[in-house]
Give the backbone structure.
Amino acid sequence: MRELELIAALPELLTSATPPRILRWIGDDASVVRARGYQVTSVDTMVDGVHFRAGALEWSTIGERALAAAASDLAAMAAEPGEAYVALVLPAGTEPEAARALLSGIGAAAGRCGLTVAGGDVSSGPALVVSITVVGWADDPGGLVGRDGARPGDAVVVTGSLGAPAAGLALLDGRARGAGLSEAEREQLCQRYRVPTARMAEGRALATAGARAMIDLSDGLAADARHLARAGGVVIDLDRDRIPVAPGVAQVAAELGADGLTLALTGGEDFELCACLPAAATVPAGATVVGRVAAGPAALRMGGRELALAGYEHLL
Amino acid sequence: MRELELIAALPELLTSATPPRILRWIGDDASVVRARGYQVTSVDTMVDGVHFRAGALEWSTIGERALAAAASDLAAMAAEPGEAYVALVLPAGTEPEAARALLSGIGAAAGRCGLTVAGGDVSSGPALVVSITVVGWADDPGGLVGRDGARPGDAVVVTGSLGAPAAGLALLDGRARGAGLSEAEREQLCQRYRVPTARMAEGRALATAGARAMIDLSDGLAADARHLARAGGVVIDLDRDRIPVAPGVAQVAAELGADGLTLALTGGEDFELCACLPAAATVPAGATVVGRVAAGPAALRMGGRELALAGYEHLL
């Protein structure tokens, strides 16, 4: 598919209606968007063979995954959704239908997040690369939540449940069979891997509830909670009995030689949110308290003991 | 080089001083920047083996080229420079020094354009990919210049001189020898290819002079002027005697079986600007009138005759 054809196809694929805040976009040298007070920006890149395998996923799913992963960083800041800018590298010989499916997946996931695809760039290259720059907005920077604000006494919460994407990937890869799970249960785990959900509304609800530090779970709760501990110079102490392990994860983890908790802590790509809330805050619906913040030096603990992060590579 | 090490190295490489408008950047889920009225955004991606050959250029030069090419789109809108967000895909085994040189080149070129590198993402993959999202700002959207405003009677102007990058690439590739040119002249052509200059100040000067349509010359004056003709629904008629062919281009073009004018029109990657100004406007210093706008239907002409764009592939 020639680049110009693909660019010509973008408007129909990506927008049902372009919001009035977008003054110029495809067809000009740059997009022009009416700004709000503070711009929140993140870039996320997915490469075939590294972050996914194009042969194992529908191209629309690759687009959905890439957009959701990028948008998840805006959710973790509690930014209001704005625009997405999409850079694609397509291998020579990419079928037009595949490229259109990729863009459709990006557009569909953007719509679910409240983002508008407002520009992009298409190149050819040796492997499929999807790099997405997402822009969110805030009128008041005090309403945005960084990684560094955790304070001793805070409650540590996570949204949703953990481990399902890692279990789903193990099933898709054939590393686990999911014996004892129904076909529907296995499919649900796989789908959690294929199409993550950026927790846009949940992020803003956590900010409204008073979140002082927040991060999205791309590397797994253990690694990402440690980022919060380090950024805040605090101890985060997780309670093993309160980690919300998703249904079916324990069965898959057993086939990988681990328990469900370990996969939930280390599997990654959950794209749920982990936040630190004042102890007196009301925990929003759908979030679970999984630990407490204590005074530093920075460390990640579980039940008072240092939580080691090495040794889990066989799970990934 | 591990991704985290590279990210840790970014601040020292990319900023001498982070401007106060940048509230958060590397180390958080997203960057936070104090916005102005209108955000102008463009994405540009360069892939090894497609847009450059990593073996033929210093890695710092690859970074400079990629940043300048991206920033050139902001210049063509007459936007004031803001931030750049850099997505890198590095091949396995990339030497830390090469990665640092790449980032240094990006940072140096950003500084020359008035841009601040405010975030990014590093992945591994099968080939070097540099994708840069650039953000510019405008307080008044009426001060931005799109592609679509040319009117009959306007003067068509270009900045600088044309054809040098295409001639330089032919020399670097060994397709031409540059017989009759001095070593310094040849090196100057090569350097015009290696390190283009985004015409940020020139773009704003053209806007101030009244530019109604503007584009940057990435595909060559012939192709890019045709974009302006189509976007405006007008005829652009170029004057062959007024096209500013860069010194040395004619000699290289002769070795490619063409004349200098043809290479200047079709070689591309000049990253100069082409704008349409009201006939009564004062042409800014450094810009040259190269043609006139006439009433449509849209067409590109030279000396009143349709200018064909095919048949120049052997020059590229």
Chain B is about 35% helix and 25% strand. Chain B has a mean pLDDT of 92. Chain B touches chain A through 62 residues (CB under 8 Å). The first strand of chain B starts at residue 22 and ends at 24.
